[in-house]
Amino acid sequence: MQYINRLVLATLASLILSGCFPSNDLGRKEYLLQGNTMGTTYNIKVVGENLDSGKLQQGIDEKLKQLNQEMSTYIADSELSKFNRSTSLEPVKVSTGLARVVKEAMRLGELSNGALDVTVGPLVNLWGFGPEYRPETVPSDELLSTTKASIGLDKLTFENGLLAKKIPGLYVDLSTIAKGYGVDLIAEFIETHGINNYLVEIGGEMRLKGFKHTGELWHVAIEKPLSTERAIHQIIVPKDNAVATSGDYRIYFEADGQRFSHIIDPKTGKPINHKLVSVTVIHPSSMTADGLSTAMMVMGEEKALAFAEKNDLAVYIIVKTEHGFVEQSTVKFMQYLK
Ligand code: ADP
Ligand code: MG
To answer: Nearest 5°: phi and psi at 309?
Structure first.
């Protein structure tokens, strides 16, 4: 059986590679800005008249560079890497960006009853998905339980802009919401330039506003969870919102015929292992959508749907069954289905 290896959100027009779309009757143009960040790519479409897109992109790249310098665990001298390396329990003042992401991570951690836990880093590394090394083997139970002792959001405090560890070995990994935060940051930056029609995408996390240059609403395609073809599974019209998808099959390794996901259940200390193929969330904030999609991926289908209904979230899930892929959405999501 061929495993699914990819499910990305893509705009229907994403295959068009030119930098600028022809103007319509209204004189508006669609400008396409592309680049690399956070180990992935970004694709941004802005609609406007006579925009200096080169200058705009320069500003975007500066914002993204700053973001990486604040919270990338792949950059040894980033603000977060320095915090992680330090064994001091003294509270430290953190940048506005890092503060914003840490605060939301802690809020979502609590809301999801620990399913989203940004201190899970040592376990991520243990299973070989972090910046350190890739063992491609299953860790022993002993190593697992000693590592588990060093994780937990209760070992991290953030008060009055000061971040502190309660144990020297605490490690914070924000990679699960950093891309979403990047999308929010860029969307806000674009809006400060008076642009209110745009699409911002970083590594599959997306936020949209307004209309395309043609005057139509932005459409987003959720691809079929198949590795053999790139076909559309569902078209959604998210309006002025962000869309995030979490899937357990994009990054994984196999050992003894079992597949191990890069998403860890903090309760067991092990990679998740259930029939939930993907979780898509529509929410005004990309960071929140990003974190919630991963949290619900940890929960599994039943708990995820109950959580979504309880918190009045727009959620769409794909579950793998004996009869193929089955999708389910919450009532709140249905308004976005095309
Ligand atoms: P997805 O797009 O599948 O949600 P992300 O890249 O957003 O994946 O998040 C997965 C990353 O988050 C992992 O690579 C790991 O670094 C980290 N992670 C894994 N499990 C958890 C968890 N339970 N809580 C928070 N972060 C996690
Ligand atoms: Mg995520």
So the answer is: -65, -45
Write the CB contacts of 329 (distance below 8 Å, at least 6 apart in sequence).
314, 315, 316, 317, 337
- For strands 220-223 and 242-247, give the pairing: unpaired
Report if residue 261 sits inside a domain.
no
Residue 255 predicted with pLDDT over 60: no
Residue 180 located in a structural domain: no
Q: Which two tokens stand for residue 283?
A: 């929410």
Q: How far does the centroid of ligand 1 lie from the alpha carbon of residue 172, in Å?
A: 12
pLDDT, tens digit, 9 for 90 and up, residues 206-234: 999 999 999 999 999 887 776 556 667 78
- Ligand 1 centroid to 230 CA: how many Å? 24
Minimum mean pLDDT among 127-131, 192-196, 216-220: which range? Answer: 127-131
To test the pocket of ligand 1, the residue of 8, 170, 176, 245 to mutate (highest count of ligand atoms within 8 Å of its CB) is: 176
Q: What is the number of structural domains in the chain? A: 1
Q: Which ligand ends up closest to the CA of 268?
A: 1
Domain span at residue 76 reads 72-165
Whole-prediction pTM value? 0.88
List CB-based neighbours of ion ligand 2 within 5 Å: 176, 246, 290, 294
251 located within any domain? no
The response to whether residue 202 sits with its C-beta less than 6 Å from ligand 1 reads no
Nearest to 8 by CA among 244, 198, 176: 244
Nearest residue to 312 (alpha-carbon basis) of 337, 281, 285: 281
Ligand 1 atom with the smallest distance to the CA of 297 is 4
The atom of ligand 1 lying closest to the CA of 116 is 24
State how far the Cα of 188 lies from the Cα of 181, in Å rounded to an integer: 11
**Residue 80, domain CATH:** 1.10.3980.10
171 lines ligand 1 (CB under 6 A): no
DSSP assignment letter at 65:
H
- Residue at 159 is within a domain: yes
| Edge-to-edge order in the sheet of strand 9-11 | 9-11, 220-223, 232-236
Residue 124 Cβ < 6 Å to ligand 1: yes
Number of Cβ within 10 Å of residue 321's Cβ equals 9
